[in-house]
Amino acid sequence: MKIISYNVNGIRAAITKGFIDWLQQANPDVICLQEIKATQEQIPVDDITAAGYPYQYYYPATKKGYSGVAILSKIKPNNVVYGTGIQHMDFEGRNLRADFDDCSVMSLYLPSGTNIERLDHKFMFMDDFQTYINELKQTIPNLIICGDYNICHEAIDIHDPVRNKTVSGFLPAERAWLDGFMKSGFVDSFRHFNKEAHHYSWWSYRAGARGNNKGWRIDYNLVSDSLQHRLKRAVILPDAVHSDHCPVLVEIE
Predict the structure, then answer these.
(1) pTM: predicted TM-score of the whole model, two decimal places
(2) Where does the entry annotate site (Important for catalytic activity) (predicted)?
(3) What whole-number distance in Å separates Cα of residue 26 and Cα of residue 19?
(4) Which of 16, 58, 132, 165 is least surrounded by CB atoms within 10 angstroms?
(5) Which domains does the chain have, with CATH numbers?
(6) 188 assigned to active site
């Protein structure tokens, strides 16, 4: 199974930049999208179906034009779960899960901490999400949590770790949470295969950051330890330019 995670920063804008043609060429079995910023009625679902993705699930935020996640699949899931049942997470449309025969794929959009209020919300989300996943793993052990975590794990995952040490997304407490989350039973699929620096998944639109590769790696496909032996490949796809993020891919045997 080939799975891609992609924060599209507005699915309608991404489509105008060639997203659907790219999707056909990339040809994942499942793609998890974040920050779709649209309702299903605003999305050309027939065009996506024609591209080979008849199974489409959209979970927009209550607030229009904000947040939202989606899963597009060639394979029909056995079950789809919208949200977590935790209200402060779900009204912003940040979690969607599709259960297949031998694994479950989740699209996650973890909040950013753009100010003190949002940073407090982010930490509350992180704590509650950890509890939610701990409980979920009791019944669904084979999880692949794809998404924009809005956190760089280690210094190798950010272009300037010194200057960014007090910026949300690279705060010590955020990094410690992500480290603990991984140690609770998940493999960072990209780092399983690639230990090198200068691989990023998000770049600011300012100051030519992408052209100069001054980025952050904040998008992950985290795979349950139980699936580690089935990891075949994991790569970042920086040539896709429909967003300020780029897609990240994992293949499971």
Answers:
(1) 0.98
(2) 219
(3) 10
(4) 16
(5) 2-252 (3.60.10.10)
(6) no
